[in-house]
Amino acid sequence: MQIAFVLYDGFTSLDAIGPYEMLSRLPGAETVFVAEEAGPVQNDQGTLVVAAERALHEVTAPDIVLVPGGPGSRRAMLDETVLAWLRTADATSTWTTSVCTGSHLLAAAGLLEGRRATSHWLALDDLVPFGAEPTGERVVFDGKYVTAAGVSSGIDMALHLLGRIAGDEVARTVQLLTEYDPQPPYDAGSPQKAPQRLVAQWRTRAGLVLGADA
Amino acid sequence: MQIAFVLYDGFTSLDAIGPYEMLSRLPGAETVFVAEEAGPVQNDQGTLVVAAERALHEVTAPDIVLVPGGPGSRRAMLDETVLAWLRTADATSTWTTSVCTGSHLLAAAGLLEGRRATSHWLALDDLVPFGAEPTGERVVFDGKYVTAAGVSSGIDMALHLLGRIAGDEVARTVQLLTEYDPQPPYDAGSPQKAPQRLVAQWRTRAGLVLGADA
Question: Annotated Gene Ontology MF terms (chains A, B) (predicted)?
Fold first, then answer.
């Protein structure tokens, strides 16, 4: 089982590495980081550089496709090479997945039309023009399409996937070995739970956060 | 405020990237990935390559030091260059921190003697020969020394740190923007919560998991 993680400049690191950490522990799985060209790819902060091992055209039929989000998704979703690759990979994939605004790339490739999907809470509405039905849920399964909400939610998505693919025992093992027993010291991780003042403040700055100008 | 993330071959990716994702959002923070030599560093799975921007000797006085864990920690904790750097950096740091078996490097450098600390649940006992007092807690503060348990716990540690450094408002903002509202589909993330059969099975295989042979 080959799992392809799609990188592009301006991706958000945890969107990719969270699920990578969990899914790479799937027995028999081969993980590969891919980008338009093989080589270094810079994250949204400009301070992390990850190597894409393969160019997109070198990985033609992954079993799982995972697209992270990040401010760079605004540019990537206009890149016909990326979108064409997503359509081709999706034609034979078992699971086509995204984290955060990675769902915008899937949507722009035409893969989420008529489907329930999710994204970063600040970017849910951007799915609508592509015919997707945004939900506020953390992880959304619609057939083989699996989308996760903002940044950290990819870890939860990966555990769901591990359960579906390899069963509860494997998923629980990965959770135990990664000691994923979250104990955040605050309870502000969603727009429903955070102070409403903060939520309102960031809604007005959404373009800035999500890189409308990128 | 400069935050140095120490890389070495065989590090566990989420140990580093989880806290990096959260701490890099601290206003005014400068993050830097460092390793014995600048350049590519491979993770424990051998499928992720992250660039260390600077060599250790180029970063002499970071405000925060963060050491991730991973099977490669067994070798790194015998590396006198790394240990000497940790002692020097610690002499002027505001916070000296670790995730997972990263605490073994701090311990081997002599920094945790007489201190409460934590590590991956399978590796707590390995802190004892260095004079540290292992606890089963997820995040342990002892003065400026902050240690987190296995892999994913670095995310919680980072939120604690953000709160101490910049206040609750900033920490809640980072939690909201990373949508860190964990909803794992299983409840097996600690040896107390996981099926005891699994826990026992992995205790007998601890050397394999944590890379005793690495």
Answer: transferase activity
Per residue in A71-124, pLDDT (tens digit) is 999 999 999 999 999 999 999 999 999 999 999 999 999 999 999 999 999 999
Domains of chain A: 2-187 (3.40.50.880)
Q: pLDDT, tens digit, for every residue of A151-197? A: 999 999 999 999 999 999 999 999 999 999 999 999 999 999 999 99
CB contact under 8 A, B185 and A163: yes
Residue B169 CB-density burial (10 A; 0-12 exposed, 13-18 middle, 19+ buried): middle
Whether B178 sits inside 8 A of A139 (CB atoms) is no
Beta-carbon separation of B53 and A53 below 8 A: no
| Residue A123: active-site member | no
- From the list A188, A144, A1, A157, the residue with the least C-alpha distance to A69 is A157
| Interface with A, mutate which of B9, B180, B202 (most A CBs under 10 A) | B180
Measure the CA angle with vertex A60, ends A57 and A62; round to 5°.
130
Which residues in A lie closer than 8 A to residue B160 (C-beta atoms)?
Answer: 185
| H or E element at residue B45 | none
Q: Give CA–CA dist B25/B34, Å, rounded.
A: 19
